[in-house]
Amino acid sequence: MRLFKLPFKNNKEDILGESESRLVNIPKHIAIIMDGNGRWAKKRGLPRVAGHREGMDNVKRIVKAANHFNIEVLTLYAFSTENWKRPSKEVEYIMKLPIDFLQHYLPELVEENVRIQTIGEIDNLPKNTKLAIMRAKEETVNNSGLILNIAINYGSRFEMIQSVKEICQDVQSGKYQIEDITESTLEERLYTSHIDDPDLLIRTSGELRLSNFMLWQAAYTELWFTDTLWPDFSFEEFEKAINDFQKRKRRYGGI
Ligand code: IPE
Ligand code: IPE
Ligand code: MG
């Protein structure tokens, strides 16, 4: 097992012992914007879909890595509400990937005690994609290890609008007074109501934006960017992101 180097010079390692020091300041929830599949393929003279396939294989590697580092939740942005704008052939291919992924890896994920969840509008996915995902969720519902949270047909603005609509209905029906609305009122209605906000958000491929991902939830998330294209994002680089996170000082507006 790899050990994390502590950023502190106060010999916490001596006080805690090696195995516990490895756990100091590890992000509980890591979210990844898995970007750069198309460019990965283009660089090799391959069709874009070849990049998506390679990207899918990398999901398995990074899930294993997350398990290794005792991460509690790994959220992977797989398809945004805006990605429907892409050529239909590419969208069709991407929509088949969860089916393939789960056919290949579900037994292994079950073995590794991974629990599969999703955020996004699953109901609007092609029927077979939805079925594969529902089955994977059901089969892993009792697993207590890493939560693999797949953001598919996910858009943060849509998510917030839905929540606002629900709140308005509750106000209209007299269940709430406008004055009663707090941050939790909205949070309780987001897809992520049952999980903590991400501690660390990684985006691959050199783009420095959020692309409609977890806009509410990432208010105090630490951001980490790399030029590496998603299919090439390795265990070592994942570890580097976690090590960098361990050195960050989160202040949440305080001093
Ligand atoms: C990310 O890779 C995967 C999805 C958005 C589905 P891209 O397909 O966006 O790859 P680039 O950005 O074109 O290289
Ligand atoms: C964000 O990547 C969505 C996913 C990785 C699923 P995009 O490639 O869609 O983002 P933009 O268009 O470059 O902002
Ligand atoms: Mg992209």
UniProtKB/TrEMBL annotation:
Substrate binds at residues 36-40, 48, 52, 80-82, 84, 86, 203, 209-211. Binds 2 magnesium ions per subunit. InterPro entries: UPP_synth-like (IPR001441), UPP_synth-like_CS (IPR018520), UPP_synth-like_sf (IPR036424). The active site is at 35, 83 (proton acceptor). Its cofactor is Mg(2+). It holds the Pfam family Prenyltransf. PROSITE patterns: UPP_SYNTHASE. Mg(2+) binds at residues 35, 222. Keywords: Magnesium, Metal-binding, Transferase. Its EC number is 2.5.1.-. It is an enzyme of class 2 (transferase). GO terms for cellular component: cytosol. One of its GO terms (biological process) is polyprenol biosynthetic process. Catalyzes the condensation of isopentenyl diphosphate (IPP) with allylic pyrophosphates generating different type of terpenoids. Belongs to the UPP synthase family. Homodimer. This is Isoprenyl transferase. The lineage of its organism: Bacteria, Bacillati, Bacillota, Bacilli, Bacillales.
